[in-house]
Structures are given as structure tokens and as C-alpha cells.
Amino acid sequence: MNRFFRYCPLLLAGMAVVLTAAIIVSNPGYIENFSQTSASMYVRNLLQGKSSTGVFSGRANDLDFSLAEPGDILLAGDQDGCYGHFTHAGIYLGQGMVLEGYVDCGVSRQRQEHYRYYDWACIVRVKIPREQRQAALEYALQQEYKTFYPIAFKDGERYWNCTKVIWAAYLRQGVDLDSMQDIWVTPDSIYRSRMIDVLTSSGEMPI
């Protein structure tokens, strides 16, 4: 075990190199502006030892789920997040269930309660009529059981991560939630969108 922790920084550095190469190969048009993307921040944070990508910390928060409606978005994060304040996102289905993406089970339905096990979390609502939010949710559900891939760029419907599902669902309703206009969509980008209202939050929230 001590040997593992001794080499952990080297493993993180290797991950950063592989990630950078994957980004450049998959998105050659972004090479010139790579330093301005959230992907570059992801690489820098990995090199600094911040490796959390959505696994909750266990420190807990008191998020109130009572205001959530189908189509609302749950965001959560922890202090070791490697690509922003928030590290995970899901779209609320109703009856305590959330559609989200994980490496081990792909795009799948999970219970809402685990969002309380992050350092902070919030529920946001896209500022469009309820009928359109329901239509976005229906599109997201069509992606259930599909493959999760952390480096899921915007193009295509083969690979998904937790935020791409949400972004693509609302884009079909005429709402682009990627406020950062990056090569991928981060939870922070959704949080900063002018098209969302924060319904409730718990823990440390960005201004």
C-alpha cells in the first residue's frame, strides 16, 4: 500500500499525459486554444493531485429534494474535484430517481439520496416551460443504458458522460447550457448558464 501512494503522483501525471493526447487527437481544431479550455484545467488539477471525478466524499450535505420536478438538474461536488467546483450531474426523473452516468453502469437510473454524500450540492431548473423540460427528459431517457466515457465530447450519440446527456437533451429544446462553449460540457458550465435558476443548495456554493 505504501508503494502505491509513493507512485500515485506518477500515475496521475501519466493520466494527464494520456488525457492531453486524447484531447488533441480527437479535437485537432482546439489545439491552439487548449490552454483556455476546461480540459487544460482538468490536466493541471490531475498533476496537482486533485483526482475526484464524481465519486462522492462521504462528508455529506443537507440538500432538500422537495422542490425538484422532472427535468430539473442536480449538481454536486467535493473539495478535491479535478475539473471544477462541481464534479457530477444528473437529471431528475421524479419519485426520487435521477438519470446519470457512471463508468461501471453507464447512463442509468440511481436514487437521489447519494447527492447528500458530496461536500456540496444544488438543484437547478432550466428556464423554459414544463412541457419542454419534460421533452428534454424524454430525450435523456432514450440514452439510458448507453456507454459512459469520461472524455465524451459534444459530437455524436455513442458515448456519454453525466453532463453531455443533460446538455444534449436541452439543446434539442433550443437551450444551450454550455455557458463556457468548451470542447465538452462540465457541471460548472451548466451552473453558470443564464438559462437556469438555483432552486435549493447545501454546502459551499460559488458566487
Spatial strand order of the main sheet: 4-3-2-1-5-8
CATH class of the largest domain: Alpha Beta
Distance between the termini: 40 Å
SSE order: HHEEEEEHEEHHE
* Shape-level CATH architecture of the largest domain: Alpha-Beta Complex
For the secondary structure, the number of strands is 8
Given helix and strand content, the structural type is: alpha+beta
Q: Helical region count? A: 5
Our count of domains comes out at 2
Integer average pLDDT: 80
> Which fold name is given in CATH as the topology of the largest domain?
endopeptidase fold (from Nostoc punctiforme)
- Which residues sit in consecutive blocks of at least 5 with pLDDT less than 50? 1-13, 30-52
Anisotropy-based shape: globular
Using only CA atoms, what is the Rg? Answer: 17 Å
CATH superfamily of the largest domain: endopeptidase domain like (from Nostoc punctiforme)
Strand content: 15-25%
Sheet with most strands = 6 strands, antiparallel
Helix content bin: 25-40%
